[in-house]
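**Backbone description:**
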Amino acid sequence: MRTMKEYEALFIIDPDKEKSLKEITGSITEDITKNHGKINKEENWGKQRLAYIIRKKTEGIYYKLDFSIDPSEVSALNNSYKLNANILRTMITAK
């Protein structure tokens, strides 16, 4: 039996990809469900100014996600998000 733990993730998505935002957020949630996780809440905070420049961008689209997943799957999720060119930054924290 898998022990599920609750997590909160904040993504900063490339603002140039606003037109394909649905596909990007869909792939983020798909990664979680593929790894036997469950999405609890999704929030799109919209485009906001960044505190500092990331990959020559001054703005980013903030996307927050609350989900439950087995703790052993979190590092695999983190790695796949780091490889995604559409995501500027990811922060996953335990609730």
Remarks:
- Residues 6 and 68 are 4 Å apart (CA to CA).
- DSSP finds two helices and four strands in the chain.
- The two ends are 21 Å apart (CA to CA).
